[in-house]
Structure formats: structure tokens, C-alpha cells
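INTERNAL TRANSFER SHEET
From: sequence group
To: structure group
Subject: Beta-fructofuranosidase, insoluble isoenzyme 4

Please process the attached sequence and return the structure record in the designated field. Keep the field labels unchanged so the import script can parse them.
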Amino acid sequence: MAMAMARPCAFLLFFLVLFSYDGSGPGSSRRTRRSGVAQATQRVFLYPQAPKVSSIVSSKYRTAYHFQPPKNWINDPNGPMYYNGIYHQFYQYNPNGSLWGNIVWAHSVSTDLVNWIRLAPAIERTTPSDINGCWTGSATILKSGRPAIIYTGADTEKRQVQNVAFPKNLSDPYLREWVKPHDNPVIQPVGRGLNPGQFRDPTTGWIGPDGLWRIAVGAEVDGHSAALLYESEDFVRWDRVDHPLYSSNASAMWECPDFFAAMPGENSGLDMSAAVPDGAKHVLKMSLDGSDKYMVGVYDLKGDAFVPDTVIEDRRLWSRIDYGNYYASKSFFDSKKGRRVIWGWTNETDSSSDDVAKGWAGIHAIPRTIWLDKDSKQLLQWPVEEIESLRGKQVRHQGLELRKGDLFEIKEIDTLQADVEIDFELTSIGSADPFDPSWLLDIEKQCREAGASAHGPFGLVVLASESMEEHTSVHFRVYYRSQEKHMVLMCADLRKSSLRPELYTPAYGGFFELDLEKEKTVVSLRTLIDRSAVESFGGGGRVCIMARVYPAALVDDGGTRMYAFNNGTSTVRVPRLEAWSMRRAQVNKG
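Return from structure group:
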């Protein structure tokens, strides 16, 4: 174990510029993210004197160990499941190009959630009930042990209807072929106030209090959001229950709902097709406002409805699965390891014309184990342990001290493909600035505007050019809330991530609570760097931020650099810093 001191920051000026940047100019545009319904759009800005940089059409921006097909458009993960020793990942895919359209269910299989074999599409647009698109849905293992898929189809009238499909040959370990029964569509968009163009993304099934199957479907009813509830004995003939699983007047439409049970404080998962033990809580997740949000509560068996522990009217304050570029997530119970695993879609943040030129668009985030904290307040997430099989050369440091303006360069590993874990220890927690609850209404604004203070920013700089003109910062600030509790702001600041014009380069952010009695003054960070993907987990997975970046330095011969840094006024100790080069996975090569 190397013992070292950080050298003074030769590039402090760049950090001062970074943390005072107002977000205008290049990077202000944003790609609208929608789940398999509307093509991504791009606002166009004029950028005077745009820097001359290398072309974005480079294979070097393709990730090495995140999930993506060899070419074309990808969006929502669909129907993940573990069946007879094989993990299955279906996903929304355009076989004809790198923009949204012509959507089918592509299909890949794996034995380890890391290396994937690409198969032929499992569900294509072949019937009147899905001729205009095979959109998002879920997989369920039935009582007989037979898998079933239920998904949204766009029919000949472009209404959104729900269809089912079953494996043709259960003896095929890869379940390559799927059959659609003549009963399709099994659920039609009928009912008072139901918008037939906003009725999609059925959940995985679960057993209701009467022993019948249940699913929920995202919908807009009378202009408000709802997870409509349906019941069935055989997973083919469905009846709508006379009330929703849950509804809210705070939004207009929920995409990609997910509903699952979790035991507080246990990082094991629960199988929704089996009896849920006493003491379990339930989680209702929905996709809206370009992000995945969730509520924790109980499934009221008598009322056959979800009841949140706390009803928050302002949806800006709803908890989020990820505070960055992450949408349309889908979870499943992994019976092999007794855990719940969640995937999410991460789109490109360049322009649509860039995607056409590249010939590909979209990736999936690393699959994460997801569980509920012991207080039943929030979900925790961590990369599945299998991803560590890609770790190669390691560097390790302990006993570092980062004074104001210090940078410590992390050398001798591949800075383009890396897994980094750092513990930061605060030295004078009593001088923290006070926390303002109004910041929760616009956390990204606080990440953009907050200046240097006693406790922050400190963190990690990745994919940095030699001159620091380009760099992505993942960092923390600590604020005083009470004698025992502090609030930690975690940011992924992309505003200086690239010299390229016409990119969306925000400063993502999320807050989590630091319990001084239990955690002392240690703030932890894990960041996975995978070329154009930067995926970070703060506070043991209490805040997760997925980001996409396109530094010119990644393509150019100069390479990129990585640093631990402190730009706060108080010294920060680093009792542990470990970093690994990450090998390339075999992803969809076949």
C-alpha cells in the first residue's frame, strides 16, 4: 500500500471556472427522453467560434462493458428475467437505424450479467395489435414455471393495447422463439376517461389477495396519472379492477411503472410471484419528467391497492432512482442469488445528426442490486458483484490528505475504463454551512451555483485533458442540518466535459443524509468510467448519478487523466483510495 501526499493544484484556475460557470452557451441544449413513444428531439443553438475538435464519429466513444448492441437505436430495457440458468435481457430496438422508430424487442442472453450473446429479435411487428410498434413490457414466471411476456403494442389505429407472448420451445435454453396467441390484444384501452394514446408499459405480474394474477399498466385517466390494475387467472384473459393500484393528480402520465416488494434493511430480493412475508414494504416506481421516481409504502391486501407511507404533492420532491441520465428502468427478482436487479436506459446527449453519423445511439446502465434501507425511507443501489470480474490492474493509496486546491493524480491504470472507490473523511464538520430545504426543489441549480465552502467541493475528476480544458467532476458538498445529521450534496458536473458544441452538459445532483453517530464523517464514492459513460454511487448507493460525456481528449492521442481533489477550505483526508483498470466485456458480439 502506497502512502502519499497530494501535490498542490497546478490547475486551480480551472476549478474556479468550473464552480462559477452559469450553464449558458454550449451544453445548454437537452435531449428529451421518452419511453418508446416519441422520437428524441433536439433544440438547436448557434455556437460562435466553436472549437475545432476531432469528429464525434469514433468507435472510442462506444462503451467497453456497458450493455449496447453493435449498431442502431436502443432504449428501454424490457422483461429482464432469470430462467433455467440464463439471464435474459430484452430491449427496445430499431433494427433499421440509429433514431427511434420501427421498434421491436431485441434479445440477448448471459450467464453472468456482464458478457452477452445477441440473438434474433424475440418480438417483432407482425400482427394487427403490434404492427406500429412492440413497445415496453415485462416478463413473469408463471406458477407452472413457464415464462410469459406482456407488452404494449401500437395497433392499426395507433391505439396502445397490451399483448402477451410465450416461448415456443421451453427446451431451448435461450428461448429464441416466442409465440403470440390469437387472443391478442388481451387488454384494450377502454374505460371512462382513459386516453388510448397514453396506456402502456405493463408491469411484471404478482399474486393478489385472491390468488389471481395482477399487473399494473401506466395510464392517463381524466388528464391525471394512474397505474391501472388488472387481474387474471391464466395471464391471457384480463379484467380491469374497479380502482387503480395508485393514482396521482400531480402528473399527467406515468411511463414504465414497476411494482415490487422489499424487506427493510435486507439486501436480498423478494419474488412477487410468491407469498410476500410479513413486514415487507412495497415500492411503486414510475418514469416521468425525464427521470425515474418512486414511492415506498404498503400493498393493502384488503383494499388491493398501494398506499404510500408519505404522500408528497410536489413531484419535484419525489425520490429518484438515479439523479442523472437514467430512464425507463425495469427490475426483476434474480432467483439465482436471491436479489432484485434493476436496469435503466441511458440515451446519448449529442445531437440526432451525430447519432445518424455514428450509426448507434443509447446504452443501458450497469445492472444494479437494489434494496430498501432499514428505515424504509429510500432505495439503495450498487453495481452487481459480477462486474468486479472485469477488474484488472489495481492501484491503492491510503492516508492521503487533500488541502485546499490539492489534486492527487491517480496513475498507472486505464483512465478510460476504470472502477474507482474513494472514502473521504472530513476534519472539521462543525463549520459546515447550513442546509436550505428549498434547494431540494432544484438540486441541479444548487450544483451549478454553489461556491467553494469549508466542506466542498471535494471528489473525483475523470476524463480530463492534460490542460484541464475538458474534465468531468463528481464531487460532494456537506451542509449542516442538525447536531447529528448533515446533508451531503453529490454532483456530477458535465459543464466542462467536452469542447464539442451542441452537447447537453448539465450539472446533475442529489442529496443524501449523513448520520454522524453511525457513519462518523466519512463520505464514500464509487465511480465506473467506461469511455462515454460515467456512473457514480455516493454514500453507499444512496445517490446514483449516470452521465454521458464526449471529451475530444478521449479520441485524441493525448489521452485522459484522473484526480482526487479538494477545493474546499478545510482539509479532507482520504483513508482509502482503490482503483482498477476494467477489461472489455463481450457484449452482443454474436
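Handover comment: The chain has five helices and 41 strands. The CA atoms of residues 493 and 507 lie 4 Å apart.
Transfer complete.
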